[in-house]
Each structure stands twice: as C-alpha cells, then as structure tokens.
Design goal:
Length: 262
C-alpha cells in the first residue's frame, strides 16, 4: 500500500480523475478540500490524490493565499501542514474559524506529542503524521467529513420572509422558487451578507473580504456589483427588495423583504 512521503516524484502518469482542479475551474458540485502547504509539490501530490478519489480540490502555499481560497471555494474540509511552526498554524486556524466553521486536519511530519495535543486542544479535527498510508489518509478524511455532516449544516442560509435560500456548499441560490445564477464575486458578496444578517456589513469589510483591498475603485466595483444583484432579484419579483443600503455604512439583507430605497 502506497504511503505519502514528501520526497515522492510527481513524474508518474496521472490517472483518470473524477474530481476537478478548483484552481483551474469554478465548479462546486462535490465535497471540496483546501490543501495548505508551503511546498507546491506536496500540494500538487495531495490534489492529485484527492481528485482521483472524487473530491474537488484547491491548493494554497501561504497563509494569505489560504484565506483567499477559503472565501472563494467555501471548502468542506481544510488540510494544513504546519507551515514551519505550530504557532503559525494556530494563527491561521483562528483566522479560518473567524471566517467559517469548517473541519480542519493537520497533515505533518512533526510527530511530537506536545504539538499534537496542543493542535487538538486548539480545535483541529484530526492530526495525521507523515508518511501515511494512502488508505488510512482517505479513511480519516472521510471520517472527519462524516462527523461534520452529522451536525446541522451552517452552510445553508434561509430567509423565509424573502423566500430566499443560499447554499454555500453548492453555490445554489433560490429566490421565490427560481434558481439565481451568479458570478463568483456576486455570490461572495451575497454569502457575506447572509452570514452576517441581519446586521449591516460595512463597505470596508465587504471589499477586504471579497477583493482583498479597500480602494475607491474597489468601492465602485462593489456598488456596481450590488446594483447587478438587486437588478437580478427584482427581475424575479419587483415587489420584494432583498438588499438595503445603509448610507455611509454598508449593506444588509432585508430580512422582512420590505421595499427599501438604495
């Protein structure tokens, strides 16, 4: 049985894959895994392995890239290497938890009891040392995903007053029994408003989390994007306003669906 070893070559022919590379396509129909490792070769190895077993996979080689990917793909599971030190992972783990409640597995060569205990106490769902048998890795990933599925999903937001549902796991949006097709950034803005409803999300938080910067040009893109979102929802039902613009503050979802000027 093959094991993962950080010295493995990547020149072997690639088998037929049933998963997709999320860094090459924007398609979210299966369980998604985000692999974070500062070694791009190890990221590619893990991506290939999980894609062969039916998962859609994205990779990141830094903390900033990991947080960006987290927002972009809303993964079902995050697999982290220690990225140099346990303290780095502790910070990244906190940033991930602040963004969304997603299971996290540490996959590392560090086989130190104190480090393992510390990581588990800080909230990781499993700690796997390398090298690891492929079948064992797959089984433990599946076990973590099964445990996550037993909980009530926090990736589906419903707003009965609006007859609106937003599924962060499949990117499916339904409004007034109509499926709404959105671009990636449009969905990111809608999802951020849904996660924070009914509070107002200020302009800076929206621009920083969706675009990673807060400039006048990005503010204008946000304004135009919300205009497009409103237009798309109003075409389905012109009597229900989904978004409210709080002057000089930000946007929020109109949970009661009343008409609001923006």
């Amino acid at each position: 049985m093959q094991e993962f070893d950080k010295s493995l070559s990547f020149s072997a022919p690639v088998k037929l894959r049933t998963g997709i590379d999320l860094d090459a396509q924007h398609q979210l129909s299966q369980k998604r895994i985000l692999v974070v490792d500062d070694n791009s070769s190890r990221v590619n190895q893990l991506k290939s392995f999980f894609m062969e077993h039916g998962y859609n996979v994205s990779g990141a080689t830094s903390e900033s890239e990991a947080l960006k990917r987290l927002i972009e793909i809303h993964p079902s599971l995050v697999i982290l290497d220690l990225l140099g030190s346990a303290s780095n992972v502790g910070q990244l783990l906190g940033d991930i938890r602040a963004e969304m409640n997603v299971p996290v597995i540490i996959l590392s060569e560090v086989d130190d009891k104190n480090t393992i205990v510390r990581m588990l106490q800080e909230g990781v769902d499993d700690y796997i040392t390398q090298p690891v048998d492929e079948a064992v890795l797959l089984a433990r990933v599946q076990a973590v995903l099964r445990r996550a599925d037993r909980h009530l999903p926090d990736h589906v937001f419903t707003f009965p007053d609006l007859n609106l549902s937003i599924d962060l796991d499949t990117y499916e949006v339904k409004f007034q029994n109509h499926r709404v097709h959105l671009t990636g950034k449009m969905f990111d803005v809608l999802a951020l408003l849904a996660r924070n409803a009914p509070r107002v999300v200020n302009y800076q938080e929206l621009t920083m989390k969706v675009w990673g910067e807060n400039t006048p040009a990005v503010r204008n893109r946000l304004k135009y994007l919300v205009y497009l979102l409103r237009k798309q929802f109003l075409e389905i039902n012109p009597e229900i306003e989904v978004f409210e613009n709080i002057d000089r503050l930000g946007y929020r979802l109109c949970s009661n669906g009343i008409d609001q000027a923006s």
